Amino acid sequence: MSYESWFNEFATKHKAIVDKLINNDFSKDEIVEYFDFDNMVKEENDFCPLYKKNKKCHDMEELNCYLCACPNFRFNDEGIKIYNGKKILSECEINNGEKLLAEDKIHQNCSKCTVPHHKSYVKKNFDLDWKKIMNRCNLNVK
Ligand code: SF4
């Protein structure tokens, strides 16, 4: 699956949950709390494939899922630029994480970075519209 397909599919799932919470008069803080990993595993088990295994993507005591994937992630399925003959498909705007080298491509590896999963970060960057926060990630969008 391309980054863009995942992005659009995920935006639809995210919006459905937020719309449901708004219709039930959840405040901003309550929405952020709802997206806490433990609650999401219980209430929204189809939201992330890892929920089925009750497994966190990062080893954190309190992990918030509202800003998965991350506002600092940048991708372009056609390639952002070429580096040493390899196409960079994704990178981190603030240079965290690591590079993952594939045969002829370079991906951003966020597995050791917890930035977007802290509740304080989510609150600081909050918008009811996930796509509005994340659209700057998708460099395919002009
Ligand atoms: S390395 Fe961290 S801050 Fe950078 S894109 Fe990945 S999760 Fe976001």
Summarize the model shown.
The chain has 142 residues and is an alpha+beta fold. Helix content is 32%, strand content 15%. The protein has a 4-stranded mixed beta sheet, with no helix packed on it. It has a two-stranded antiparallel ribbon with strand order 1-4.
- What is the count of β-strands? 6
> Quick one: biggest sheet?
4 strands, mixed
Q: What is the distance, rounded to the nearest whole angstrom, between the alpha carbons of the first and last residues?
A: 21 Å
Q: Strand content of the residues, in percent?
A: 5-15%
SSE class: alpha+beta
What are the bound molecules? iron/sulfur cluster
| Uncertain runs | none
Number of helices: 5
What's the alpha carbon Rg, rounded to whole Å?
A: 16 Å
- In spatial order, strands of the major sheet run 2-3-6-5
Per the principal axes of the C-alpha atoms, what is the gross shape? globular
Could you tell me the mean pLDDT?
94
Classify the helix fraction into a percent range: 25-40%
Q: Could you give the order of the helices and strands?
A: HHHEEEEEEHH
